[in-house]
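Request: Could I get any protein with tokenized structure?
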Amino acid sequence: MKFDPILSLCAEKGMVSGHTQAIDSAPVKANTSMDTLEINVPEEYLRKIRAISSIDKELPL
């Protein structure tokens, strides 16, 4: 799908507003293969989740 129809749909839904839109682009190397998708979870978040998990394991049911 081209950019102009997408921008028009966004404007109709109130997602963008104004009188002038400018577009700037640059080529970006990308790999969109779902086979190589990796989830990146911040280490601090993982520590918090692991702490909660260990507390849950210690609590009686």
